[in-house]
Structures are given as C-alpha cells and as structure tokens.
Write a structure and sequence with these properties.
Strand order of the largest sheet: 5-4-3-1-6-7-8
Radius of gyration: 29 Å
Shape: globular
Strand content: 15-25%
Structural class: alpha/beta
Number of strands: 9
Helix content: 40-55%
Length: 319
C-alpha cells in the first residue's frame, strides 16, 4: 500500500523535471494583457504635450545685433530692447513648435562677481524668463556662460523636461552642450543673427544641430536704438519721463483703435496668447505709443509692461 502511494506521488514528475509549461490558452491571455498595458502606456505618452525652451547667449546677441544694426559691438553705444526681443523669440517659437508649450526662456549673460545689473534685474522680472549669470572679467569677456548653458540643456533633456531646445548662440564651445542634450533625445535648433559679412556662428556648431534659423536685419532693427553721443540731444525731445498711469492710458487708447480696425475676430485670436503679444502687434503698439508720448520706450522695461497691461486690460474688458 505504502509503495503504491509513493509511486503515485512521484508519477509525472521525474528527477530534474519542472512544472508543466503553460497551455496555449494561458499564453494567449498573457499576451493579451501585455498588449493592453502597452496600449495604455502609448495612450498616456500621446497625451503628454511636447515642451520647448529657449536658451539665449546674451553676449552673442548683443555683439551680433550691435554689428548688424548699430555697426558696433560696444554695448555702451546702443540700447537693446531685451524685453521686446524676448517676446519676439517666444512668439517665433510658438509658431515653429505649434503643438508644444514653452517651459521658459533662459537668458545667459555676464556680470562682475555675478551681481545683476539694473538691466539684468529687469529681464529677470519678466514672466517665463530665467537669468543665469557667468563672470565678467577685466576685459569685459564672459566666463562660465557656456558651461551654464551645457548644464541646463543636459539636465532638462536628461529629465525629459524638454523635447526641443532653441539655442541662440554661435560659440564652438556650445557643441558639447548640443551633443549632451541630443544624447538624451532632445532636438536642438540653432537660431542666429544675420552677419554683415561671413558667419558669426561656428561651423562645428552648425554641423551638430538639428535645424538652423537666422534672424535678419528687419527682424532685429526694432529692438536696437543708437544712443545719442555725449553732448547730443536726449531722447524723447527732452520731455520728462511719462508716469505709469499715463503709459497705461495710452495702451488702452491704442487698444481701442486696434479693435476698431481689426475687429472681434482678431481679438478672439489674440486673447488665448495672453499675456504675450505677437511680435508684429507688440511692435505696432510700441511705435504708436512712442509717437503719442513723444518719448522713447526702448530699454524702459517697466513702462513697456505698463503699456501692455493697459492694452490688454482694455481689450479683455470688451470680450
């Protein structure tokens, strides 16, 4: 009896044999469950919006637009409307990366002992803008900016925070930053400023990026104003600086004229972009406001904000 039980217990499982493999029905069920999980994962990935960021080497921008528009790289010889230029770059990115959202704009510049200048402080206060500072040596040369760009580009790409990076610069030292970001799957698009002669971007950098785009004189000119030489007439025909409320009123006045000319359909297209204005609209607003105020608003970041606020406040009240 005992021997029979022992023989029955061991039947079908010999020495070295494992459990029976799953049947076809069980395998088919596992495959079906795996496919369901993959479909869910792909659906979630499809719902995740693409994200882009803009990386601006301010030293390159000042030198390039200065040469192109003012004929000099000396920052003391011209004013750059950084706020207006940043708005234009954001607007351009919105057009190029139509199905993507902006993470932020990174503005890289140099400063002595990394202490913000007044201008850099005003840029840092802009929405969606992060100012990152390297050092400025005794020869007014930036130091450490390229490494800051590489660190940010690589980190954001590694953490899948961005899918596309628009890089405004031209230094060959940025090649390693491009390679690092691309290594994590991000696409890097090089944006440059038109050069009067030859190129102002390294060939090695042009070879590495995924796409290239150059902004010409017509694009850059509205954001650069030559400074009057010492002893010359001050801007604004010598008139005093307007108050913030005056500028807001002018913004509202221009908004009324804009709506009367463009109509409700144009307003419906403009509203989703709040608080940003398309580059063309922003430039029209600036030029018309300066004509009404008899005062230059170039480089006046606080008054430019008041102007846009007045413009937007009036328009949104009509919707």
């Amino acid at each position: 009896m005992g021997a029979g039980v022992g023989a029955g217990a061991g039947a079908g499982v010999g020495p070295g044999e494992g459990p029976e493999p799953p049947g076809l029905a069980e395998l088919a069920g596992r495959v079906e469950r795996t496919n369901e999980l993959l479909e869910r994962m792909l659906a979630e990935v499809a719902k995740t919006p693409s994200t882009h960021a803009i990386f601006v080497d301010a030293g390159y921008v000042y030198a390039s637009v200065g040469r192109l528009v003012a004929g000099t790289e000396d920052r003391r010889s011209f004013d750059l409307d950084a706020e207006g230029l940043i708005e234009a770059l954001i607007d351009k990115a919105r057009t190029i990366f139509a199905d993507s959202r902006l993470l932020r704009v990174y503005w890289y510049d140099g400063a002595r002992r990394r202490i913000h200048t007044v201008e850099q402080q005003s840029i840092a206060e802009l929405p969606d803008v992060k100012v990152r500072l390297g050092n400025l040596n005794a020869s007014n040369q930036q130091k450490g900016v390229d490494s800051l760009i590489r660190t940010d580009l690589e980190s954001l790409a590694r953490h899948r925070a961005i899918s596309d990076a628009a890089l405004v610069g031209g230094d060959e030292d940025l090649v390693s930053a491009v390679e690092a970001a691309q290594g994590y799957g991000a696409r890097v698009h090089l944006w440059g400023i038109e050069a009067r002669d030859g190129r102002n971007q390294a060939e090695a950098l042009l070879w590495e990026v995924d796409s290239q785009r150059v902004f010409d004189l017509e694009f850059c000119k509205p954001y650069v104003t030559r400074r009057a030489p010492l002893g010359g007439e001050p801007d604004g025909e010598g008139l005093p600086r307007p108050g913030r409320e005056d500028v807001r009123f002018v913004g509202a006045r221009i908004a009324a004229g804009w709506l009367a000319t463009k109509g409700p359909a144009a307003l419906a297209e403009l509203l989703p972009g709040h608080p940003y204005l398309p580059g063309a609209v922003d430039q029209e607003l600036l030029v018309e406001a300066e004509a009404l105020l008899h005062y230059s608003l170039r480089g006046q970041a606080d008054l430019r904000r008041e102007l846009r606020d007045g413009f937007w406040t009036w328009l949104r009240a009509q919707f």
